[in-house]
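Usage

Read records sequentially. Each one opens with the input sequence:
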Amino acid sequence: MDDEQRPLTLPYRHTQVGYLTLIGLAAGFLTQLGRALRDLRRHRRRAWISVPRAVGFAAALALFGSMTVTVDDREVTASFTGGLLPRRIPLDEISSAEVVPVPWYRGWGIRRAHGGWMYNVAGRRAVELGLPEDRTFTIGSDQPDELLAAIEQARARSAAAA
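and closes with the structure output:
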């Protein structure tokens, strides 16, 4: 049975790797590390400017390399590499959910977007959740249709159980 015919089951769990994010951050890290080493060999004081930059790139590389999204009978959770910076949205707070395009200029990582926040590691599509007080939370995904189906299924189960 191929993926399109397989019935969706909860809990839904998917980890997306941001390959372009990893490549870009690794290039930034290596560039700053190379500058620092070059300046240290030449006994230049400015070498210490590149060290914090390299550390920043390394931290971003470790944090934003992947994102895991889970949907269960209680909530939708999005977190970055290793479960860091989790955002949990209870199902009963979700008023709407839809697949939306993500323009290139909205970027990757954690961003302000359309009256709320966006978590994204790669890709051009996302699921936007409508929340109370006209807020939104947008989850970038390389499987937006499957994620939307899981959220709708979980919301239907939650409503039926109430």
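Summary fields computed downstream for this record:
- The longest strand covers residues 84-90.
- The CA atoms of residues 76 and 89 lie 5 Å apart.
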